[in-house]
Amino acid sequence: MRLHEYQAKELFAAYGIPVPRGAVVDRAEDVTHLDLRYPVVLKAQVLVGGRGKAGGVQLAHTPEEAQQKAARILGMQIRGERVGRLLVAEAANIDREYYLACVVDRSSRRLTLVASAEGGVDIEEVARRSPERIVKLAVDPALGFCPFHGRWVARRLGLQGVLLGAFADLASRLYRLACERDAELAEINPLALCEGRWLALDAKLVVDDNARPRQPDLPVDEEITELERMAREYDLSYVELDGDIAIIGNGAGLVMSTLDMVAHFGGRPANFLDVGGGASTEAMLRALDIVLRKPGVRALLINIFGGITRCDDVARAIASAPPRVPTSIRLTGTNEEEGRRILERAGIFAFTDPEEAARRAVALARGGP
Amino acid sequence: MAILVGEHTRVLVQGITGYQGEFHTARMLEFGTRVVAGVTPGKGSTRVHGLPVFDTVEEAVEQTGANASCVFVPARFAKDAALEAIAAGLDPVVVITEHIPVHDAIAIVNYARRQGVHVIGPNCPGITAPERCKIGIMPSHLFRRGPVGLLSRSGTLTYEIVAGLTRAGIGQSTAVGMGGDPVIGMTFVELLELFEQDGETEAIVLVGEIGGAAEEEAARYIQERVRKPVVAYVAGCTAPPGKRMGHAGAVISGTEGTAQAKVEALQAAGVAVAALPTRVPELVAQALGR
Predict the structure, then answer these.
(1) Which of A52, A105, A298, B93 is most buried, by the most CB atoms less than 10 A from its CB?
(2) Which distant-in-sequence residues (6+ apart) come within 8 Å of B7 by Cβ?
(3) What is the pTM of this model?
(4) Is A187 among the residues known to form the active site?
(5) How far is B141 from chain A (nearest CA, A)?
(6) Are B72 and B100 within 8 A, CB to CB?
(7) Residue B100's closest chain A neighbor by CA?
(8) Which residues of A touch B278 (CB under 8 A)?
(9) A204 to A11, A22, A154, A190: CA distances (angstroms)
(10) Looking at the partner chain, which of B109, B154, B238 has a beta carbon nearest the beta carbon of A252?
(11) Percentage of residues in chain B with pLDDT exceeding 70?
């Protein structure tokens, strides 16, 4: 789960990472009452990328200008996300911009410090263009982050003396935050050098969803849709797409391959729902309810390969709540015979072969028999 | 021969008194796996399916000679359980549990590396060597012994492809479900090395999915080191960028990790890549010259 910039900055500050003075508002008229030194930067609090290009970040030199611009940004739609909140922060005199992040690295299988003297830009672009400009340090979890690690990285960024020491201290704070807060990513971009001081001008924090239970004081996830929230209650994962075929399957890989099959035969998935391992009849009923709530669904494809999930549990759900749109079902695996018997009694047919089921779903979405 | 497990494998089930642990212990015993003990702290000296249950892994090893572990312990306690198994020298340690925090997985995997222990998972269906040993939750009836080594990041998709192979009359030497999380114990490269050395394996099936760079790393390794034919399928060709596709591992970010990039890397390494999972058996049959 990704936190908003202002939420991440509050956490960063709590770990002693310097951030610009600022405040959050949700009404433009509140901007003028803030005790801040001008000029200020107004920053739309959205989770999608590209807010700067969309006009969601603006500089203001007076309270009047700030209020005017705040009114314009609040309520803006940035790539589909409505701006409900603004971070108003004191603008900084930037001498130079760096990049610093702590990220879970799949390849080294360690928490890894990533830094660059080229900050303020897309770091993936820097990695492609000039990989030698990126400094990486995979930290041995048994050892933890040591002060010399910070100096090792700082030296490779060309830093010396007091700045090197201050950078190393900052890096160690970011690492500690990432560990204690179960971060998949804790990123400062840009990390600015302002009149001899380090300042985190932006903050990005992505917390591991699996660690939510042991991070009870982190803010709640506001970004999920109502349907996604309904899915979560049953430990189902639901994703919206923009076609007209709803898809239910068990297991992420199987579901993705089902999407691939539908596309292969010329269909377009409307959404998909992974019921995971060991889906009960109740979970399956919830799944059927969720995927069909999306407007514009013309057909439903159910692809179940029973492992822990039992075909009879799945069949019971389908038979007790027959879908209101034309449906193609593939059912095989554990307790398959019992599952088929249940469906047959309800007059419902099921394929064994996933390709045939996918082809049928595509035909049904086109209004075929 | 199979890889990592065999007739010599004596399995300890951690979390044997839980619902999943008890259920799948019965399935493993039916399969013919030599499950020798269970561990649940606080429930020592009880029995499950006739097997002795111990409070600690150390005692279970002393009393029963267990040499491999299957972890069903709930996510909150799974890190400690896996570390205990690694400390006792069990190998492999197969972690079935899902929803383990990634920082816990990092601790498990790095400790295992230091101790020279193979960890499979977390969030995985386990490992199966037909007619010899099954550790985990894969449906037993799908398998048939034969020449194909299978390694996969996905659970149910593994079942789909194994079922297809068996239907086509092609058996398996060992199938490994590596787990779908961002940080996992055994990687494609480590498993490819074992399959390449394994006398029973004549062809390899690699099942990948979007996210990360594991398939690209596998492609480089195959190009340099693998002489046996490799067939692959990569799930998620039509997945939209930036969306989590069901579990933590499967998310595309930026340009890295798309199915297209993975397919191209594998093809460039001489791997036959199937467009759909259902097309894997025919490509394997060709690779085996059938």
Answers:
(1) B93
(2) B34, B132, B133
(3) 0.93
(4) yes
(5) 9
(6) no
(7) A210
(8) 261, 353-355
(9) 11, 16, 21, 11
(10) B154
(11) 94
